[in-house]
TrEMBL record:
InterPro entries: DUF3025. It comes from the Bacteria. It comes from Undibacterium seohonense. This is DUF3025 domain-containing protein.
Amino acid sequence: MTKFYSVIDWSRPWLTSILPAAQHILAQEDWRAALNHIAQTLDLRNHRDLPLQFIPQEALPDGVAYESHISQAGKVPTRENLHDFFNALVWLSFPLIKRQLNALQSAQIDSLGIGKSRGPARDAATIFDENAALLVLENSERGHRLLACLREHQWQQAFLDHRDDFGAVAQVWSFGHALMEKLVQPYKGITAHTWAVWVDPHFFKQDFALQVQQLDRQVSAQLQSHALTTADYTPLPVLGVPGWWPGQDHAFYADQSVFRAKRKTS
């Protein structure tokens, strides 16, 4: 029987961040049971220290907000679709970040209610949850120079002149589950909201599992100590990341419908 997630190409570089978690699930017949087995094995818990469990969407009580149910019960409503599947894999891969995002989102709901507008703090947390990529940078002149190019939308400089910086002093890690869902059928205009993470040179020499653990701890600590706003993000057309798509020449990055100049502020 063909699974709903059989359309995913796991060789894509933007899925590296969740691939180890996915490999544990793909081999099992019951994907939701496998998610819960791993969550239990890892002793994953929400910000109230309740054990984390993935439940069918129908088990979400009427009138209870999605984020609130995760916060109050430790139960993550999970539909049989790519969006929720990727979300579950991110929970397994970066549980501390997801826990902190849920704490922020549920606190905003408790304070302001659901309403039509999320409010700036919840909006920023939702953007992170859905569409963020972690831009991991060496805390050095090279790292700061690359970030400056990206923030100024100097795409040719960032992706061509500084191409060798990627992998050596910079990495892009997909995080948002909506971002991953869009990338199942990639198109050039897909843009992530990047969150800068500064690391020392040793980070890039570490084992993958240690890198994941460091990012999970470090970013969750950032989210606890920082008042999150939408101004924190730097846009990144993800297929421009060196090695993430073929044909990345000058003409590729000259496409101003995707690699747009920075808006001038008055």
